Automatic annotation (TrEMBL):
Keywords: Cytokinin biosynthesis, Hydrolase. It holds the Pfam family Lysine_decarbox. Gene3D superfamilies: 3.40.50.450. It comes from Microbispora triticiradicis. InterPro entries: LOG, LOG_fam. GO terms for molecular function: cytokinin riboside 5'-monophosphate phosphoribohydrolase activity. Belongs to the LOG family. This is Cytokinin riboside 5'-monophosphate phosphoribohydrolase. It is an enzyme of class 3 (hydrolase).
């Protein structure tokens, strides 16, 4: 299976996040999975891709031309797809992936998480989505989402569309298991 890993490209973060990305890449390859990534060589993005390749796994990098122009493209990718912009990049990454794993990251990672989570809740795909959060970075997000549910902004099955993990093994085990099917009705989507 090809696993899309959303993660940080920031070079200002603690080294433990890059180490986590490398551990994820090593385990993906060990389990026989390929990687779909944002196609950059920096920070966590580069670490996960290099680790997958070091373990004999295949990598697909998807990167917008603007990032190629500033010379951060992972030209060692088995396949490097250059897109016109970020929107096209996300679409290609989505289309090429069998599962989604979210590591700690910034607003770009959050945007990717929310788009894939929303499309899963709406029944637009049946692929697993797991957030790997060993140090609790996403704890405030979980509190926010719980509050949104309590105030009626989310259906209960929104929580069935995502899984949370604190270890690499737990995250990959969750990605490899069957996921519940979500079939929203018109009433659930606000239609009358």
């Amino acid at each position: 299976m090809f696993v899309c890993v959303y993660c940080s490209s920031s070079q200002r973060i603690d080294r433990k996040y890059a180490d986590l990305a490398r551990e994820v890449g090593t385990e993906l390859a060990r389990r026989g999975h390929g990687l779909v990534s944002g196609g950059a060589i920096v920070s966590c993005m580069g670490e996960v891709a290099r680790a997958v390749r070091a373990g004999g796994g295949r990598t697909v990098g998807v990167i917008p031309q603007v990032l190629v122009d500033i010379e951060i493209a992972d030209t060692d990718s088995d396949e490097l797809i250059v897109t016109a912009d970020m929107r096209e990049r996300k679409g290609v990454m989505d289309a090429r992936s069998d599962a989604f794993l979210v590591l700690p990251g910034g607003i770009g990672t959050l945007e990717e998480l929310f788009e894939i989570w929303t499309s899963r809740v709406l029944g637009m795909h049946e692929r697993p989505l797991v957030v790997l959060d060993p140090w609790g970075l996403y704890g405030p997000l979980r509190v926010l989402v719980d509050g949104m549910y309590e105030h009626g902004f989310l259906r209960p099955d929104a929580f069935d569309a995502i899984a949370w993990a604190t270890t690499v093994d737990e995250a990959l085990d969750l990605l490899e298991r069957p996921v519940p099917q979500l079939r929203p009705t018109g009433e659930e989507l606000g239609e009358s």
